[in-house]
Write a structure and sequence with these properties.
It contains 11 helices and 8 strands. It has 292 residues and is an alpha/beta fold. The protein has a single domain, classed as Alpha-Beta Barrel (TIM Barrel). Strand 1, helix 2 and strand 2 form a beta-alpha-beta unit. Helix 10 packs parallel to helix 11. The protein binds flavin-adenine dinucleotide.
Length: 292
């Protein structure tokens, strides 16, 4: 099923993100993870794509497994910054071959010490979106950044560039992680003012461990709320307590987002199905009542 049809049919959607393993020997672990996640009956599961295409084959394989074996719609991420249009066409042919018609089209982070744009390579996600839409047969989504993208200090321009992606044919957006819902509401208002009307799915990152949250916030530039900082400070040396508090924080954040009518919730599971399960247990009745 196309993701846009899911989003048009019911609100809010609930979806998960997983990443492919760095080593092929760990592929079976990820298949077990998605199998467990599928039991939560998500609306779709997305699979990230290694920048530079390193884990590209595994992205296709996992997305295929999710859809054809587990019966859950999958969304394959695809980055373009290290690719030519010919290389991208090979991948899109493979996706279509497997019946995978949902793609999250991304630029990817620019590799260090590499000239950008490299000759013949894509420059921005909008260029990839344009090509995928022109090729046809895909429901194409894109990324957006409620606190602005780290490479662009000009938040106004960042939204203008986002509009370029939507005008290029991006059917829906998934946000970068954020910890303060007011940041998202403010962002949604700014999108509305710019006439960006596609569904925006809120990306939620639960704490799995202190190091990963520090790394992710540094990379994404997401601001920690005082409440979140206090939680990290208080429980940083007690992983189980931190996990419990982090799950409660994510549940609270999701309930507020659903109460305020977001299009969907996308949980960055970090390949930890037990965390997604705890969150789903905390919102089961809420999701159930929204489906009625
Ligand atoms: P773009 O939309 O191209 O924007 C990138 C930057 O360029 C922004 O600063 C923007 O303001 C600026 N810009 C855009 N257009 C122009 C223009 N015409 N002129 C000048 N500047 C411009 N990374 C991975 O490697 N693999 C993944 O699977 C992956 N999944 C992700 C999923 C989500 C939901 C999100 C939010 C991010 C994901 N990322 C992933 C990270 C993403 O690839 C990086 O944030 C990357 O740096 C930007 O990608 P983008 O598609 O947003 O790029």
């Amino acid at each position: 099923m196309k993701i846009i049809d899911i989003l048009n049919k019911k609100k809010p959607s609930v979806s998960f993100e997983v990443f492919p393993p760095k080593e092929n020997s760990k592929l079976a672990d990820v298949m077990n993870t998605v199998e467990r996640l599928s039991r939560q009956k998500p609306d779709f599961i997305s699979v990230t794509y290694g920048a530079g295409g390193g884990t590209c084959a595994n992205t296709c394989e996992i997305a295929d497994y999710i859809q054809s074996r587990l019966g859950v719609t999958s969304l394959a991420h695809l980055t373009c910054v290290s690719s030519t249009s010919n290389e991208i066409r090979k991948i899109t042919a493979e996706l279509k071959n497997k019946g995978l018609h949902n793609v999250l089209a991304l630029r990817g982070d620019i590799p260090k010490d590499v000239e950008h744009p490299s000759p013949g390579h894509y420059k921005q996600a909008a260029d990839l979106i344009r090509d995928l839409v022109k090729e046809g047969g895909f429901c194409v989504g894109g990324a957006c950044y409620p606190e602005g993208h780290v490479d662009n200090p000009n938040k106004e321009k960042d939204i203008d560039y986002l509009k370029e992606k939507v005008d290029a044919g991006c059917a829906f957006l998934i946000t970068q992680l954020f910890f303060d819902n007011n940041v998202l509401y403010n962002f949604l208002y700014r999108l509305f003012q710019k006439n960006i009307n596609v569904p925006v799915i809120a990306g939620i990152m639960p704490v799995t461990n202190i190091n990963s949250i520090r790394r992710m916030t540094k990379l994404s530039g997401a601001t920690l709320t005082p409440k979140y900082k206090a939680m990290l400070d208080r429980f940083e040396h007690s992983p189980e307590a931190l996990r419990q508090a982090g799950t409660a924080y994510a549940v609270e954040q999701i309930i507020d987002l659903i109460s305020n009518g977001v299009s969907g919730i996308h949980i960055y599971t970090m390949n930890k199905p037990e965390i997604a399960e705890s969150i789903m247990a905390g919102i089961s009745e809420i999701i159930g009542s929204e489906k009625k």
